[in-house]
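Issue: ligand-bound run for magnesium ion - logging full I/O for the record.

Environment: standard queue, default settings, no custom constraints.

Inputs:
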Amino acid sequence: MKNNILEIENLTVSFDGFKALNQLNFSMETGELRVIIGPNGAGKTTFLDVITGKVKPTKGTVNFKGRNIRNFAEHEIARMGIGRKFQTPRVYLNLTTRENLAISLNPSKRLISTLLGRRNSRPKNITLAGLLETIDLMEKGDVLANQLSHGEKQRLEIGMLVAQSPDLLLVDEPVAGLTDEETEKVGQLLINLAESHSVVVIEHDMEFVRQIARKVSVLHQGSVLCEGSIQDVQNDPRVIEVYLGQPMTDVHA
Ligand code: ADP
Ligand code: MG
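Outputs:
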């Protein structure tokens, strides 16, 4: 229990009576890389919305590092150490790769925190050069972001998240629309990041899930249907039923 970065109990989110999440239970160890799959409308994005504080639970609790985050605003939760990558890259297209990363390292915000006497939890050892290496864009540092491929933009945005030194990274469908080669690179990046972060990845590309996954949780109708290795969940009759017998590679989240 103590080593769980996330501990979620009986989580219910109702939108006008419709339960997007329904008594969901979920826990994840610190340092884990967890993949979440599930059919369209299963509640995957809502799940991330609750963890980041964008949506408040109707019932239930979300504990992050042992702390109930219910009464915290989105920006406070981000500051507590949760970083989220949305599906479409949110990078500044008219700035270079290096400039985008520099903004996320964000000295002005750190200065304000210092002036307000807040503890700056960001480790000093994150450097621009180190970030460029992490995301494998050393050669593209001075290139404008609008010149980057879709996959390179995704990696840049992941780098921008890492610059903020989150403990938990939430990544929503990072390889949608990428070539096989780019997909593989994003996968390797997430595997590398998982050495020093806890990571939740939502994805439906099963080839990619096979590349990165250790443990998979399947969401269905707002609850966790089953959890296990990729083989376990793919062979689980309940999962096959939910995906209506289609090959899971063809199912879009
Ligand atoms: P997924 O990401 O797994 O496709 P979502 O979390 O986006 O699923 O949505 C789960 C269900 O909740 C869907 O039926 C969706 O229509 C509904 N839903 C999501 N957000 C809202 C909202 N703000 N208001 C009403 N219904 C919503
Ligand atoms: Mg979604």
